[in-house]
Design goal:
- The protein has about 525 residues and is mainly beta.
- Helix content is about 0%, strand content about 40%.
- It is built from two helices and 27 strands.
- Strands 1, 6, 7, 11, 12, 13 and 26 form a seven-stranded mixed β-sheet that branches. Strands 16, 18, 19, 21, 22, 23 and 27 form a seven-stranded mixed β-sheet that branches. Strands 2, 3, 4, 9 and 25 form a five-stranded antiparallel β-sheet that branches.
- The longest helix is centred in the N-terminal third of the chain and has 6 residues.
Amino acid sequence: MASILSTAAQHVTTRHRSSSSAASLPRPGEPQHTNHPSPSHTHHHGNRPRSGSRPQSRPQSQHSPLSTSAPIANGPAPIHQLEQHQNFNHSVDTLGSSSSIDSQLPAETTLTIEFDGGTHVIVRPNRVVRGKVILDVAERMLVTRIRIKFRAEESAMVKVEEGGGDTRGEWIHQAITTFFESDWKLWGNEASYYSQCPWEEMDIGHYEFPFALKFPNVNYPPSMEDPAGFAIRYVWTAQADGPALQSGIKSREYITPYRPIIISTPDKEWTYRKTLMKDKKHAIAEVQAKLYKQSYCPDEPFEMQLNMTTLHADAKIAAIEYKFRKHHEGKMLVQQGTAFREHIRTVIHSTVPIPSSNTHHGTQVAETVIFDVPTRLVSPSFISRHTRVHYGLQFLVTIEQGHLFKNTTVVDFSIPIIIANLPHDNLLRIPDLTVIQGYRESKECPVFFDPSLDEPPSPSMNNGPLSTPMNEEPPNYYTLPIQPPQFQLGKERKERTVFLTRPAKGALHSQEMYPAVIIQGLFDEDW
């Protein structure tokens, strides 16, 4: 099992092999969201020379051939963009100094990931994601292989009060479900079940390893971080395995946003009706709202006709405000029942103008509500095992009653709205859209493939014979039924769940969480 080494939140370094078995391993750096890059990573772009380093246009070392991530036994050397240390020593002229040579070498060993498209990469179904793993070696190191991993996980964490008497206290329960995990060797030797793996020495310099991944035509839940304790993340990591099963180095986690492809429903006019109650006993007004669609997409106009009528002669509608709200709900089964958390985010907050020259003196209102659905903070409505995201348009109506002594009542109602991310007329424009599967039914897993190809090999290429015919003479005893890695694309995803329990006192992020609401005796995972 590889270990993680880091000296700072933004760097990953090597350590001495002689002490690797006894030294304690520090915690990894904080995860980085690719759409919110940290300033400390802006200087690690492979297309731009670092401060004090030689430009990438310098000639290559004579014994370091150019290569990418061709998946052969040992793998050819990666793109080595700095000459070896001894060649630098021979290139010092009489006016230079050895200190200037040292400034051109990496200050410390780091392992990072860069994506094509920069920090705005978004993972979608049936799409290819490309990038490169960058290794800057500050001192010679022994490496068995260099790998990249991509996984998706859903995390549910709640704080509940349990126990009785002296043992009663707050506990944190957490369930982490990994939807899939894909692994790809960029360089080095393949892991084998029947043989130990040799290792190679990597010289000081700058190395780049291109990669490509094809996401299956499957809709997974979109990325999210609400409510507190609940998250769905799509995470990339790079790892260099050390020699003889010793610890190597590992990059920080790179979190990329994922967006499923969900088409809105056909346009269909419908009417929302509601009787508003005062103190849940007395009817005070009637509401009728006509909407022209049931589902909307970001950046689309929303329009509805709102009609309201009071049911009392002395009642007058004084003010109307509305909120377009996003509901994040999370739940998890615990020993007592179902722990429930909710977070409501107001995306739009505005008012409905009431003309002062209303001929009905405020007893009736007929106004049009118009706004554009925002693109920020608006993701598709969805349901997963632990989370649910849905939307509603909440109206707060202020009604005044009485003549001399007025009594003010505020009542509310909410109109359900469902959010997609593509209009319905795109149904036939997107290839293979109608054959998208749900992640609970599909066993397809994202696959890495040779980055020199446009697409991964088709599954039909994997059905060929793995060895020579059995009637050959002499018998082919040493034929191994193993395909090259670029053809091992038919792997099924394996979902797994890990449950963790710990006392809330002193736990990480415990102060940010408030106790969940417990629905006693309810053990139903369906929403």
